Amino acid sequence: xxxxxxxxxxxxxxLICATLLMVGKLFYxxxxxxxxxxxxxxxxxxxxxxxxxxxxxxxxNGKVLVQNEPVYDILVTPRxxxxxxxxxxxxxxxxxxxxxxxxxxxxxxxSPYQASIFEKQLSAENYAKLQxxxxxxxxxxVQNRTVRxxxxxxxxxxxxxxQEVNQKDIERSNNFYRAGDYIGATGIERSYEEMxxxxxxxxxxxxxxxxxxxxxFMDGKFDTLALSGDELISSLDKDLQKFSETLLENKMGSIxxxxxxxxxxxxxxxxxxxxxxxxxxxxxxNNYAKLLENPFNPMFIRPIQASYPPGSIxxxxxxxxxxxxxxxxxxxxxSCGGGYRYGRGGRAIMRCTHVHGSIDLIQSIKxxxxxxxxxxxxxxxxxxxxxxxxAYDLWKESLHKFGLGKKLGIDLPGxxxxxxxxxxxxxxxxxxxxxxxxxxxSLSIGQGELGITPLQMANFSAIIANRGxxxxxxxxxxxxxxxxxxxxxxxxxxxGVAAKYYEPVIEGMYKAVNEPGGTANAIRIAGLEMTxxxxxxxxPHGENHAVFIGFAPKENPKIAIAVFVENAGYGGxxxxxxxxxxxEKYLTDTVSLPQYIQDRIYEADLLPENKKEDDTNSIAQKxxxxxxxxxxxxxxxxxxxxxxVGKNEQSQEE
Amino acid sequence: xxNRRKNRFLNNLDWLTISIWFTLCIIGWFNIRAAxxxxxxxxxxxxxxxxxxxxxxxLSAAVLGIFILIIDARFFISVxxxxxxxxxxxxxxxxxxxxxxxxxxxxxxxxxxRLQPAEFSKFATCLLLAYxxxxxxxxxxxxxxxxxxxxxxxxxxxALIMLQPDAxxxxxxxxxxxxxxxxxxxxTPLLAFGGLAIVLFILALLINQWVLIGILALIGGxxxxxxxxxxxxxxxxxxxxxxxALYVLSVDFAYDELLQSHQRNRIDVLLGKIDDPQxxxxxxxxxxxxxxxxxxxGKGYLQGTQTKFKFVPEQSTDFxxxxxxxxxxxxxxxxxxALYITLLLRLIHLAERQRIAFARIYGYGVFSIxxxxxxxxxxxxxxxxPVIGIPLPFISYGGSALWSFTILLFIFLKFDSTRxxxxx
Lengths: 654, 424
Known about the structure:
By secondary structure, chain A is of the alpha+beta class. Chain A folds into two domains: 47-234, Penicillin-binding protein 2a (Domain 2) (Alpha-Beta Complex); 238-644, 3-Layer(aba) Sandwich (Beta-lactamase). Chain A is built from 23 helices and 22 strands.
């Protein structure tokens, strides 16, 4: 021992201080500061999404409308790719060498260490070829997903399509969706997205510092299973839908058939349509662009988005609202001398097709007498002890109750309300409110400024079938295992006209089909208690549009229908036979209309010639989706404009 | 008679130290397994894995230890100059034939094994230092001359190691100041100045140097106004102030010119001047995440995700403490630190009870080296000292380190066991 013995205490002191410093810091980072445990989990935990199968869609009889088909995404981790036979690889998945390099660059830009999508949606056949060789391509992986498949290629616009979510979708969903997810973009796929999409599962896997998977975290304790989407039972009848679509081939137009007792849409055709399978798979982008360029606008859902003056089918509504208003009764007679004279001193005439003589309500519907409805409308507007514009508003209100001029609320996105002008519209048009029925007499026969969608036409056909009420038309009759229906589709809505007023109207519609001299007598089917009303919607640009509404059987109706064929001509010639064939097909599964009529329908090509020319030069059309909306709006404005022009030139009705 | 001698020899051994040594070795072995765990080779003894190799190193270190314990203690005194000479030659040799690993030319390849001369130089330096200082303890040579020679003994291998360059190993020798201090070669004020110098160095990097000098002047003024014996102290105070001020002014220069950029970066990261968890700060950040996520009880053996999945670099060697912190938590870490503290305090106790100066001085040498490694290694993983790549004694993976620490410790244990038979 020497003199400096005491110095050992200083040295021990330094040691103790250093130790306390270490323990203090350890205490801080291990016990007090919780951020490290978070960082540690962020380091190792990767949440891998397990995609659920989207719910399938069946028709009302349980037949498949939309199913899922497995496809295979190829993923690549660029760092792991070594010495692969590029030539073989590109051949197997059907890309060229340049495409290979482009995809590799993209993947490298994303991350050399993390797997990213190399090629999307390889078909099962393609994958089968690749699978045998996959072991030769280190760094490439396959992840399977499902895409939609449409076995019958029908009802494209109704079923809609799905597409990858965009940034807006993600924001709107509060980050429910992640990049790469699919979302229903249109149609039922969009309306019922929340039921169809199912729930994603999450697998917690651990990765190492190079992001290589190292097995499941805590033996999968926090993993969740993917839950498939709900099955949807559509109200559509697949066979009927297919049949109806065939009938409208090479024609522009709509067919809507509704089961009146439930509001379920049995068939809904928008022609020209497209094959829904085009919107699936690797060619989707190209197909989509082509569809946008198509001058016939196959993405346009005519039954709910196009509106037209309904033509003579509107007379049934005029007859009903007039009875309810008390301006006529079933046996009220007017004299038809070949037209309805109006204006100062009767200088103007709204011509009728025939000279009907003294005619009652039933006959007026059976023969579609314009004169009769000129008188009715005159009484509705001019003889109700109130100014004409007020009477008009009352009348307009009664039209709304029939579901006209407003959205019916079908479970399809993009429905349009149609158009019924307000009294202000005419007041503005004529400069003052002193106008009378003579100013817009064409409304009485469904021409003029009216804009009615084919769905609304089918719906009021259903109202007549039901003698006064309807259910909101809808396309889905059951969701999931419990077969639930949205509550808004089980609510019975009254159309505002007492049941007793329907009988003469229905009688007229029955006779129009079943009695000689009826406008639709050509479509009579023996033994089928069918009713109907034909119409012709004025088209100042070409051939008129053919319209037909009807239901069958007369008592306890099972189907109510509206058929609208653009540029076809007379309703009785083009629309009524189609309506008849569909109703008979649905009720008895046969079609007994004379073969020559059937052939005429099948063989007719009623697509406008000028647009066909456009089709060959379709590059001139703008595929820009933003433009699409505009053009749609323009189309409407144009339609109204045209109708206004046609105002004074009253139509000849059948 | 043989039996009695053997018993006395075994009784004289300091079994506490040996138990701690053994415990630390085993802890190291298990945690190296956790750090490099490969489910394909789960056996603790697989020779192709690092923990398998470590088992071999531990066994051979034990054999080496036993071998040391049966050699006559006087042999180590007489062999001191030769050991120093040989390790010095090896340090020169490594500069010529050494293999460069990670930028440092520190290893001499011997077949499949790599020898790291800097590790062995530590105990050789301690031996020669003890040899020289014990020679001087009974002579009255001028203090300054003794200090210069002792310093030269320490700084010569430091210079050679700096040439590799291996700043971490070189810094280890700075711990030998405790030996000089204990033997009276440097005084308490100098030790305090040493501490002060470190504090000032850090402050100078963090605070504007002129502001810092102002603060120092203020402190000096306060001490002057409230202190006793003003006149005697004023000269001292002014001297201290001027030296401190010059020192502060030179820190920036030294920092920019004398340190290499990666060393500067490590210090900047530690001081929070660089916030770059993916780049410069990656090691420290990942290391803190691993240890911090261990929390109170740790994640359990082989359950540490951060170390198992290689987020922490160098985890079986320099960053082995991450594995311990992550898998055994605060409790495990404190137990490990307690083991070291027990060992280090025990070493001081043993050193002080030596009857010959050589053994005492050498004992302090052992203490200094182990203390430095212990504090710097754990300190760097939790962010209280800059990242300096030196192993954690007896725990980090590596044969050279384990053997040199074992030789260092066991030579001292040999002296201790025969202390009653040795006299100056």
